[in-house]
Design a protein that fits this description.
The protein contains 62 helices and 51 strands. The protein is of the alpha/beta class. Helix 17 packs across helix 32, helix 26 (about 605-620) packs across helix 28 and helix 56 (about 1325-1335) crosses helix 57 (about 1345-1360). The protein is elongated and about 145 Å long. The N and C termini lie far apart (about 145 Å).
Length: about 1600
């Protein structure tokens, strides 16, 4: 009897020596020992030694008796168990076991497996036995087996194989070559062919060790010789066409069998590019070769498609045809669905796999594809490879790298063919696709294309002026045709609106768009396919893969953005070639504007990629490789995380950087493992899991058992390094269908219970110079802020504005609060599942819904801070023993380690408590962490390749993306040209389309876009919009608009030079032509009036896009940065503090990451404002600054403004200077005088004279007075010479304005005074408070509806009809409404708080405006009268002030002066006169009192009475008090302050005036610093009369 021993040994990975031995012999004797000589004694007299992988593993590390023959069960298994599910003891190369480190147990399993193998061999038919023997008799892995079974044979092997496998393999395959060169590979292939289970596969370990098997199985089963019965039957595509698709023949194009030719090309394993029209059978063309490969060689066809949502549709469609071998793996699957899909691919059940390009980054996907024989890669939407295509995607450029890497890993000169498909592609796109694969993979693509047009489609374009006309035409078409109809629109919102409107008109219609829930999409699609509804209103997402043959009408309500897309979408009509169908476009040129705007919003600009590169440089300051999430990169780049598709945008930017060689994005590999199993077997593990009190329920225990069973049974034998890979948490999650978070939690519990060993899989990175105290201070800062936030949190939904919230925190004493800190805390609360948070993309409004009890949350957070304190101290203590690397100390630690530390400090904590605390510390940047549980929040591995921080992403690197965007622009113009051409000539339009796809692209452009049109199609704007933008501008203005290369521009703009127009058109140009997104554009002004004017003019020019541009005053922007509600009282240091914040680490990067900064009135910057500008420049390397101002009009030196800062941009930053010296405002005489006057100012930036554009001469009149009280003379002049237009009187001082106002009132002339009222917050004016009350807002009202607003305005007008300030209040409300597309409550409140009354004063005909010269800046009037009492013009400051006053005039300038200062300018006047008359003192003076001039405490008990009064109501003055007459009684309602009384008394006693009358100017809400409640106060006007 033959003696045999079955063995297994455990080998140390450290010294490669065996340290544990197990053996069992055929008599049943057993041995388990750690002593080598005992083991050798047991086996030394045996004839045969058998084991699993004994030849390559055990025999190399253990002494084996020389005479013994080796039998390896591993290599026999694929021969003898080729049928799925193979053998119960096997999984790939592994022996399934429930014990670890027990070689005796594994020896027993090897014995059981061996005897099963012997039995199976004995049952094989003699031919197959002979074949295996003759192929493998000399192979060392098999020779022992032949000796043991005593089998031998001798025959003509090739003939034997051909006879035995007749009808199963190609008769002309090179069998003899395989016998001679690859006998083992041939054996395994024949074993697979002999398998009776259709989904059986060659095991992965065989493919890895014998990579030629893939080629051999292909040559045997799937290489058409065209000359044998097997090939003619098995590889006949017509058989599959009939069997699965029910067709008798392939589709022809103009009689050409293009589809069949492409299928045959794929069957021949050639690579191809097929351009088939929509409905042209593209899917079938790759599905038939995939099915053939799946059946013949068990090949897997991988289909890469950009649209995840459509993958399931494709799979479902195939299932309906009886094809169950298709699966998809994408991000929309649940863990269980994902695990099931992976299992189907891995087990051979799937022959077609649909994935997205992003999936190629997954290690799981790579591992899966390595385990299968890949027949080919099919790339759908192949035009995405080309920058000249209509949808270039940089993630497609990774596909070639992935295939190349996969081929290298598979070895044996693996070459995987590709099939590329697209519905439309012009010649340049075809060339780009072919070049890509030639350069990347050395592949030549066979081209299959047709110029055949769809003869059953009739095209039409109907030009419609507006949406109403479009809808009427739409309805008429539907009523006329009465057939299944697809309506394409360009916006998601429109799908709902038009479908709803059609339903209300009696049609059966439903919407369809990519943002719908999958269930709703499916339901609406099925309803349309099944003719339950007539109409589907859809975005371009509809129709791909939808097989509905009877659609007879496709209407484009909005034209497509390219001819390619239009042809595809229109082609969804008339799929039944026997039906005549119509494709109609309802066109208006403004449709193209929408496409241009959308392109600009969605394109990835070079500046954005530069921002991401800067973020990567920041993340890799101290180490070359990092793991991070797309959201972390976005935040570091300063991108607003509320922007849609932000993850995709980040990944696209990273791919662009990778393509340019700046970084390498690795596979998404979570670095956490479940290794070092401490239990001996599954029984022990199960018992300990059952006993554990740490698992919450039986489900958690079952999860743990599944994990430990997978770990134990997956112990690798053939691949020593595979154990770590298969203990990776993403591997476990994918295979077991369990969420990664649940896997990690279970692993932590099993570590706590000693089932798994603890592993230091977390790393803290501590900067060499960081201190424990710094981290604790950060923690303390957040602790105080979070306590504040927790106190305002309740169990209901709350809506908050970040700025309001921060302002409340600061007011509550949380000094370190910032908007960024609040955002960080709310983000942490969200990912920790404490709250749901929804942020509006266009406002700082955030809605929070609590998901747990508020009190419980407070307790948990307080505990977390205690743990955080302990952890920080421990990590810094441990850093003394850490590893120093690149100025960082690396401290490795584990969750359990920290648990034990916390327990020693008296804290009873779970692993979850520690994880949450560590995550919090990471998010607040108190400690930098990586690894461990953080894999849940860090999806990408980035390796920086360019380490020089000075190197930037350049225009050259951006070339390919830029080319794509240029093409997109041209495509929009081209589709517009098609529409206009179709209106004119049907035949010409069809020829135009045909030429577009068939001609060389450059030739096409030269034929159809000649002369000016060649330039026009380069612009991302329609010619009409371009003319609107630029035709009204001067040459010099155009130079500024078109300068897109200068990083810094200073525009020195003279008065009336169209500065506002230039800036508005420059802003429009930046948005429409220069790729600047609205969120990356910031404009700063010095007044809200200017900001509002810019917004209004922009809205007129570019429409609703103007709403989203950030145009703010310096103070408003700084209040935003600081997260404070703006008000005049707190504005003193706000700019300085904001500048400091920008330079700190606590800034909200989304607020300061900008591409362009535009500064209006830049000459008025002071040191703090210029420092803020420089801080923004420091934050943004590529920031473009456009500063517009006039140093001649710098009149605010008294507050620190200085034109030297404007000059600094030129001298220190090399800004390009443009002078604007054409005056569009003033008449020639006014301009000539201003030129003469301004030359006396020293150190001017402009040297050229201002020139008047108008030919009107106008009037400049000087009146010199020799006497006093010239106010009366000026007013006589105003009244006597008024001949229409707007008129303004300018004075030097506030007192002078009051005198002028009094005289005009006394003479009955209507006038208004532009004057600020100290620190008045207009939010507190009674009329506006009443309006707010009537809005009837609740605490959770976020948006004010138009109905609410209109009702409140009506209530205000009714209640305050006799208020003299009502018109101004209505102007304020109307201004807000006009400048805000959506009326957010918080925006309205901030608007009121941050506005000043003078911002809303407008010049009116018939009403004389009175102002100081300072307040007149930025305004203009037809007639300007300047009052100058002995003016001092010695200083430049005073000259500038006067220059501003003079240049406000458009037609008439009259200067009334006393003294001699202006005598020298009389030659510059059109009229000069001397008035020697002595005028009497003004008889009337009006005082307008502010807060300081009334006694505020006097009002505290009078609120009820005061609120019954109205602005304009008369008051009586008695002594210091003011009385109202109410219901026939006299009540005291106000009292002068002591200072005011003294001032009035001075006027009365010293100047001879007495109080004539008083009236209410404003009623205002007020609350003292120590008051709990508000009261109402009166700010009166007091008239004084000369006695």
């Amino acid at each position: 009897m033959k003696s045999i021993a079955f063995i297994d040994t455990e080998v140390s990975t450290e010294d490669n020596k065996s340290y544990d031995f197990g053996a069992i012999d055929n008599s049943g004797k057993q041995l388990h020992t750690g002593v080598p000589h005992e083991f050798f004694s047991f086996i030394e007299n045996k004839d045969f030694i058998c084991g699993h992988n004994i030849v390559d593993h055990d025999a190399k590390h253990t002494v084996i008796p020389e005479k013994a023959k080796l039998i390896d069960t591993l290599y026999l298994s694929p021969l003898l168990f080729p049928n799925r599910p193979y053998h119960a003891l096997l999984k790939d190369d592994k022996l399934l076991t429930e014990e670890l480190n027990n070689p005796l147990n594994d020896s027993q399993k090897a014995m059981d497996l061996f005897y099963d193998e012997v039995n199976v061999f004995n049952e094989l038919d003699d031919e197959l036995k002979q074949i295996y023997y003759m192929l493998l008799k000399d192979e060392p892995h098999f020779s022992g087996f032949w000796s043991y079974v005593g089998f031998s044979a001798k025959d003509d092997l090739e003939t034997l194989i051909l006879i035995h496998f007749d009808g199963k393999i190609c008769e002309n395959a090179p069998i003899s070559d395989f016998i001679r060169n690859s006998p083992v590979e041939l054996s395994y292939c024949l074993a697979l062919i002999s398998a009776t289970e259709r989904y059986s596969l060659i095991p992965r370990w065989v493919q890895m060790n014998y990579p030629k098997v893939d080629n051999i199985i292909r040559r045997l089963r799937n290489t058409h010789c065209h000359n044998c019965a097997y090939c003619n039957e098995a590889l006949d595509p017509h058989r599959y066409l009939r069997k699965y698709f029910g067709y008798t023949d392939f589709r022809k194009y103009n009689g050409e069998p293009l589809q069949e030719n492409a299928v045959n090309c794929a069957i021949e394993h050639e690579s191809l590019l097929a351009i088939f029209p929509t409905g042209g059978g593209k899917s079938l063309t790759f599905q038939i070769p995939a099915l053939i490969s799946g059946e013949t060689e068990r090949g897997l066809t991988v289909v890469i498609s950009p649209l995840q949502s459509l993958m399931k549709d494709q799979v479902d469609t195939l299932e309906k045809k009886g094809i169950e071998g298709a699966v998809t793996i994408n991000g929309l699957l649940s863990p269980i669905e994902r695990a099931e899909a992976i299992e189907r691919v891995e087990s051979g059940l799937a022959s077609i796999l649909y994935i997205s390009p992003e999936s190629l980054r997954s290690v799981t996907i790579e591992s899966l594809l390595l385990s299968r024989h890949i027949d080919r890669f099919v790339i759908d939407e192949a035009h995405c490879f080309s920058a000249w295509g209509q949808d270039f995607r940089v993630d497609y450029l990774y596909i070639g790298d992935f295939i190349k890497e996969l081929q290298e890993k598979k070895g044996a000169n693996c070459r995987i063919p590709v099939s590329c498909f697209t519905a439309t592609a012009k010649q340049k796109v075809v060339s780009d696709i072919k070049d890509y694969f030639r350069n990347k993979l050395g592949i030549e693509l066979n081209l299959f294309t047709t110029d055949a047009s769809r003869t059953n489609l009739r095209y039409a374009v109907l030009y419609k002026e507006n949406d109403n006309d479009k809808y009427e035409a739409l309805r008429d078409l539907i009523e006329t045709k009465k057939c299944p109809t697809i309506i394409y629109v360009s916006r998601t919102r429109r799908t709902y609106e038009i479908a709803k409107k059609l339903c209300s008109d009696g049609f059966k219609a439903r919407p369809y768009n990519g943002k719908m829930e999958s269930s709703e999409k499916q339901e609406n699609q099925e309803a349309f396919i099944n003719d339950e509804i007539q109409i589907i209103v859809a975005t371009s997402a509809f129709g791909m893969g939808v097989d509905k043959s009877n659609v007879k009408l496709v209407i484009h309500y909005d034209i497509s953005d390219s001819l390619e897309n239009y042809v595809q979408e229109a082609g969804r009509a008339g799929r039944d070639q026997s039906l005549q169908a119509e494709c109609v476009v309802l066109f208006n040129d403004s449709d193209l504007d929408k496409h241009f705007i959308l392109l600009n919003q969605t394109k990835l600009s070079i500046s954005e990629i530069q921002q991401v590169w800067k973020a990567v440089k920041d993340l890799t300051k101290t180490r070359q490789e990092v793991c991070c999430s797309p959201l972390e990169v976005a935040r570091k780049a300063g991108w607003d995380d509320s922007v849609s598709d932000i993850e995709t945008r980040v990944k696209t930017a990273l791919q662009a950087l990778e393509n340019a060689g700046y970084l390498k994005r690795g596979k998404n590999v979570p670095r956490i493992y479940a290794t070092s199993i401490l239990v001996k077997n599954m029984i022990e593990a199960s018992e300990r899991i059952e006993r554990s009190a740490r698992f919450d329920n039986d489900t958690d225990k079952m999860t743990a058992k599944r994990i430990i069973k997978s770990l134990i049974s997956s112990r690798s034998i053939a691949e020593a390094d595979n154990g770590e890979a298969e203990s990776r948490i993403d591997y476990l999650a994918d295979r077991l269908g369990i969420e990664r978070a649940d896997i990690i939690r279970s692993i932590q519990i099993m570590r706590n219970d000693g089932i798994l060993a603890d592993t230091k899989d977390l790393t803290a990175y501590i900067k060499k110079n960081d201190t424990e105290n710094k981290s604790l201070l950060i923690l303390k800062k957040y602790h105080v802020l979070e306590n504040f936030l927790l106190n305002i949190l309740d169990d209901s939904e709350i809506s908050l504005n970040y700025k309001e919230l921060n302002d409340k925190a600061l007011s509550a004493g949380v000094k370190s609060s910032t908007v960024n800190s609040i955002k960080t805390l709310l983000y942490y609360w969200t990912i920790s599942n404490y709250i749901d948070k929804e942020q509006d993309a266009f406002t700082n409004k955030v809605t929070i819904v609590t998901k747990c009890d508020a009190e419980l949350m407070k307790k948990q957070r307080e505990k977390s801070y205690k743990l955080a304190d302990i952890i920080i101290r421990y990590l810094f203590k441990s850093s003394n023993h850490g590893v120093l690397k690149n100025d960082e100390i690396l401290v490795g630690f584990s969750i359990i380690e920290l648990q034990n530390v916390c327990k020693k400090c008296g804290e009873d904590v779970s692993a979850t408590d520690i994880e949450k605390t560590l995550l919090f510390l990471s998010k607040i940047s108190s400690v930098k962490l990586e690894g461990g549980f953080l894999v849940l929040y860090s999806g990408m591995k980035l390796k920086r390749l360019v380490m020089d921080n000075k190197i930037r992403y350049k225009n050259e690197d951006y070339k390919q993306l830029n080319e794509f965007y240029k093409q997109k622009i041209q495509q929009i113009h081209i589709v517009g040209e098609y529409a206009n051409m179709m209106v004119r000539s049907y035949e010409a339009a069809l020829k135009f389309v045909n030429d577009y796809f068939q001609m060389d692209y450059k030739k096409f452009l030269s034929v159809y876009f000649k002369g000016e049109r060649a330039t026009e199609i380069e612009r991302n704007i329609t010619p009409e919009k371009y003319r609107q933008l630029f035709d009204t501008l001067s040459e010099r203005q155009l130079e500024i608009i078109k300068d897109d290369t200068s990083q810094y521009i200073v525009c020195t703009a003279g008065p009336g030079s169209g500065k506002t127009r230039v800036l508005v058109h420059k802003l429009a140009s930046l948005l429409l032509l220069e790729d600047v997104k609205h969120e990356q554009l910031l404009m700063l002004t010095f007044s809200r009036a200017a900001a509002l004017e810019f917004k209004n003019r922009l809205r007129e020019l570019i429409g609703n896009a103007a709403y989203f541009i950030e145009v703010k005053t310096f103070h408003s922007y700084c209040f935003d940065l600081l997260g404070k509600i703006g008000n005049i009282k707190d504005s003193e240091n706000v700019v300085r503090d904001a500048g400091a914040l920008i330079r700190s680490d606590d800034i909200d990067l989304g607020k300061v990451t900008k591409t362009v900064l535009v500064i209006d009135e830049a000459q008025d910057m002071d040191a703090n404002e210029f420092s803020l500008v420089e801080a923004l420049m420091e934050r943004n390397d590529e920031l473009r600054v456009i500063a517009v101002g006039d140093d001649d009009q710098n009149i605010y030196q008294f507050r620190g403004s200085d034109s030297k800062y404007l000059r600094k941009l030129i001298t220190d930053y090399n800004a390009k200077q443009y002078d604007l010296v054409e005056n569009y405002r003033s008449s020639r005489s006014i301009v000539n005088f201003a030129n003469c006057f301004v030359k006396e100012i020293t150190e001017r930036l402009k040297t050229a004279d201002i020139s008047a554009v108008t030919n009107q001469n106008g009037e400049v009149r000087f009146v010199k007075h020799t006497g006093s009280y010239i106010e009366n003379a000026l007013i006589d002049d105003v009244i006597s010479t008024y001949d229409g237009g707007t008129t303004c009187i300018l004075t030097n001082t506030n007192d002078e304005t009051l005198v002028v106002l009094g005289i005009l009132k006394q003479r009955g002339v209507e006038a208004k005074l532009i004057q600020s009222i100290g620190s008045l917050d207009i939010y507190n004016i009674a009329e506006l408070r009443y309006f707010i009350k009537k809005l009837q807002l609740t605490d959770d009202t976020a948006v004010i509806s138009n109905e609410q607003c209109d009702n409140a305005v009506y209530e205000l007008q009714t209640a305050y009809s006799d208020s003299t300030c009502l018109p101004l209040m209505l102007d304020i409300l109307n201004t807000f409404k006009e400048n805000n597309k959506k009326l957010y409550r918080s925006d309205f409140e901030i608007f009121l708080h941050e506005s000043r009354l003078e911002d809303f004063y407008k010049a009116e005909q018939g009403v004389i405006t009175i102002s100081t010269m300072h307040r007149s800046k930025g305004r203009e009037f037809d007639n300007v009268y300047v009052l100058l009492n002995n003016p001092d013009i010695a200083s430049d400051e005073n000259k500038r002030k006067l220059y501003v006053a003079f240049t406000r005039a458009k037609s008439k300038l009259c200067v009334h002066y006393s003294g001699t200062a202006f005598d020298k300018y009389k030659d510059c006047a059109t009229d000069f006169s001397v008035d020697e008359k002595e005028y009497s003192r003004p008889t009337d003076i009006t005082l307008q009192l502010s807060y300081k001039e009334v006694y505020l405490d006097f009002f505290k008990d009078k609120k009820h009475l005061i609120l019954k009064l109205k602005s304009g109501a008369e008051l009586e003055v008695e002594g210091r008090r003011l009385y109202c007459n109410y219901c026939g009684k006299k009540y005291p309602v106000a009292q002068f302050s002591r200072d005011c009384s003294n001032r009035i008394q001075s006027s009365i006693t010293q100047k001879g005036y007495s109080i004539k009358s008083a009236r209410i100017r404003y009623i205002v809400a007020w609350k003292g610093e120590n008051d709990e409640r508000e009261t109402a106060i009166i700010l009166p006007d007091v008239d004084l009369k000369l006695v």
